């Protein structure tokens, strides 16, 4: 897990790893240091004999949002920290890794069992930052007029296939993590939800369909938009998805493997919840709730195995859905899928004690839930119950749109 983070950073120069292109983006070297700080803070500090931090100021620089641990550096100004440099961060990682191995090798089984949950959380935390590292460097490189390439290769140009629908029975269903294996605290506890019969689109909305929305004045028609969304359109001048630019009447899209004409058959990506909701209104449909999404996926036998265009494919961009199968397609991978559900605690949710309890619960306000996974998501990090979340106006994440409606066919 730790080695993979370094492999993701390897194509980037030290200068690449220092840039913070907007407040929501963190420098690559900060991601590398922060996940190291996590192990140093939550594993070594309370268990290593004679513990002392690798460097006193790192404790301050690389804390993200853990108030209980102490003060931290302003998130929006991480890019002005030229030192430690990317090489020094690598030395920090190596030091903590060596101390971590020494600690674990010397623990008795009882002590190791007590630490296992925190260690496992640290690994999954690092996977989250592997995905964020890729999302963030995509934005950094998008601002460079040289249009540098990170990795991956464009797919052959494709055309959208017909949109199909999958009918899903409603009723009293169980939502939340209930399988063997790891989950974050926000996926718990399992609970029952009543759902009316509904249906979900069998694939994600495509670029070609989004171009039709734009051509029909989608970004100029206030009747399609939530009030806050329309305010964002006017304030920021939204007229297309985040990484699209129009040159001589042709729309181009920036990707991690370069900038190319928009491919009509690929899923539209880097759209906000507000845009997703407006598109659904334009199409006469809606976004699924997170409970509908999870129940539909669990009801589809084809989704028993988590597989799709995830980060292990190394495409680093959404791909076309492929031939219709009569079942749900693109459930895992390609794009995180916006739902209509606000990010709120499940009934009976209780944050963990101590600083670890700040991991998810403190963000359960002013956020919307996304489900599935994207082309930058580590394959071991996708599951039916996973709850991703972003503010409704966020566009830099690799997010897309799947439609839903009631069980009545249009």
From TrEMBL:
Database matches in SUPFAM superfamilies = C-type lectin-like
List, alphabetically, the Pfam families matched: FGE-sulfatase (PF03781)
Domain Sulfatase-modifying factor enzyme-like spans what residues?
165-404
Which InterPro entries does this entry report, sorted A to Z? CTDL_fold, EgtB, Sulfatase_Mod_Factor_Kinase, SUMF_dom, SUMF_sf
What are the GO BP annotations of this UniProt entry? Answer: ergothioneine biosynthetic process
Question: Where are the annotated segments for Disordered?
Answer: 1-25
Q: Which residues cross the membrane?
A: none
Q: Which NCBIfam families match?
A: egtB_TIGR03440
Name of this chain's protein: Sulfatase-modifying factor enzyme-like domain-containing protein
Please name the source species: Nocardioides simplex
């Amino acid at each position: 897990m730790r080695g993979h983070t370094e492999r993701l950073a390897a194509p980037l120069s030290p200068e690449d790893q220092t840039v913070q292109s907007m407040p929501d983006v963190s420098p690559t070297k900060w991601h590398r240091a922060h996940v190291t700080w996590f192990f140093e803070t939550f594993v070594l500090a309370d268990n290593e004999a004679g513990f002392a931090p690798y460097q006193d100021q790192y404790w301050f620089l690389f804390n993200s949002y853990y108030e209980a641990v102490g003060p931290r550096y302003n998130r929006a100004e991480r890019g002005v920290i030229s030192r430690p440099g990317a090489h020094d961060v690598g030395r920090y990682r190596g030091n903590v890794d060596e101390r971590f191995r020494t600690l674990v090798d010397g623990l008795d089984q009882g002590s190791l069992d007590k630490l296992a949950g925190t260690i496992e959380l640290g690994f999954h935390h690092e996977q989250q930052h592997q995905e964020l590292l890729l999302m963030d460097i995509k934005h950094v490189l998008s601002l460079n007029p040289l249009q540098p390439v990170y990795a991956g290769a464009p797919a052959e140009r494709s055309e959208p296939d017909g949109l199909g629908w999958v009918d899903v029975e409603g009723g009293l269903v169980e939502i939340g993590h209930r399988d063997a294996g790891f989950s974050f605290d926000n996926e718990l506890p399992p609970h029952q939800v009543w759902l009316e019969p509904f249906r979900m689109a069998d694939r994600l909305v495509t670029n070609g369909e989004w171009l039709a929305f734009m051509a029909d004045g989608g970004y100029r028609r206030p009747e399609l938009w939530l009030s806050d969304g329309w305010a964002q359109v006017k304030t920021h001048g939204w007229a297309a998805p985040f990484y699209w630019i129009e040159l001589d009447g042709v729309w181009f899209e920036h990707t991690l493997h370069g900038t190319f004409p928009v491919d009509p058959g690929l899923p539209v990506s880097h759209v906000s919840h507000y845009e997703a909701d407006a598109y659904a209104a334009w199409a006469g449909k809606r976004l699924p709730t997170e409970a509908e999404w999870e129940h539909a996926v669990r009801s589809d036998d084809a989704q028993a195995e988590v597989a799709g265009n995830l980060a292990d494919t190394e495409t680093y961009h959404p791909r076309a859905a492929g031939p219709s199968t009569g079942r749900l397609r693109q459930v895992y991978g390609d794009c995180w899928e916006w739902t209509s559900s606000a990010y709120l605690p499940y009934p009976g949710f209780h944050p963990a004690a101590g600083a670890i309890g700040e991991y998810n619960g403190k963000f359960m306000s002013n956020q919307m839930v996304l489900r599935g996974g994207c082309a930058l998501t580590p394959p071991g990090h996708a599951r039916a119950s996973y709850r991703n979340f972003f503010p409704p106006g966020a566009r830099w994440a690799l997010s897309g749109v799947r439609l839903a409606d009631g069980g009545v066919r249009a």
